[in-house]
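Check these lines:
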Amino acid sequence: MADYSNSSPVFVRRCEDYNEERLYLILKESFDALGIGRTTFDGKKVLLKPNLVMAKNPDAAATTHPAFAKAAARLALELGASSVTLADSPGGPFNEKYVSVVYSTCGMKTAAKDGLFSLNEDFGFAEVHTSGVKLKTLNVINAFLQADVVLDLCRLKTHSLTGMSCAVKNLFGVIPGVEKFQMHSNFPEVGNFSEMLVDLAEYVTQTKDFIAVCDAVISMEGNGPSHGIPKKTGMILVSRSPFSLDVIGERIMRGAKTDSTAFVRHLDIASGRGIMPRNWQETEVLGDTDYEVFDFTPPDTGAGYLLKNLPNFLGGKLVDVFSARPVINEKKCVGCGRCADSCPKKTIRIGRRGEKGKKIAVILREDCIKCYCCQELCPIGAVDTKQNFLIKLIH
């Protein structure tokens, strides 16, 4: 019988809005249910690690709602934390100017004015070594290294590359700035990228006291993690394990389809390593055990993502033919160059098109690895995905 000693129960509670007092009471209840108390926090430095993928208003559902940060910080301080710092490395340069804009737009700068937490002002990072399968060395931000306790404040979202962004994927933000693009370049195939995510999450949970808190009050479906559609799901998830939380998050997102098709590859990999059971029915749920499940609209890349999970004889060479590819929406594109800056393989150029010579992005197909960083980080959503016509027929 498999040993799942590293798994954890997942606390689920219905929550219809972002009322700060209600969020605080639910988090307090969840901590009590999971046995998280003063011994975890007393005298410790706490890092709030939200999902702040880019400068987006909280109502867009792309980023962690600031009310979660305030509620989590309040509870940590009441349990004896010596300090609470909020830090993330969004998709772009990890420097004061860029991150300040993201914090401001996402509502964290205003939330910090109450004094419950401070915003990270250290933009340094250092190299660490892991015992991972794929990931042996990496740079991580100093705010993470200096913390004793990590509160992973993720949001439940679809994701064009990984299928789902939740507790595990959110930890990708401890890697500084544009080095995340290098990770995409180093691990271009979704299986290897997912192996890397599991290595990273294991490193985090093995070196820090860890708690995952998922903002699933308003989630995101469609072309997540940045340009999808907000979806009311009305709940909060909490666990000591990012993997266990993701199993239940996937169940909420996929409903009846959870057991029928491959969707979140990093969960397959983590289960294969014996970290937690893959079947959601084997994950203990506390709180609202009759939680509601949904049928999220998948990303436009959905079918291509499933192809990448097939055995190599189908998912190897043929995946490049059949998987969805990023396409510039020329009517929307303003030629800002953000997609070119975010491309791990530097396959995007800014040129001029048409009679008026409009500046526009151009993707050089031959080197594109279909990581969808361009789609994720385009500030105006001017990158679409185009599926092979045979895949459309299959759908």
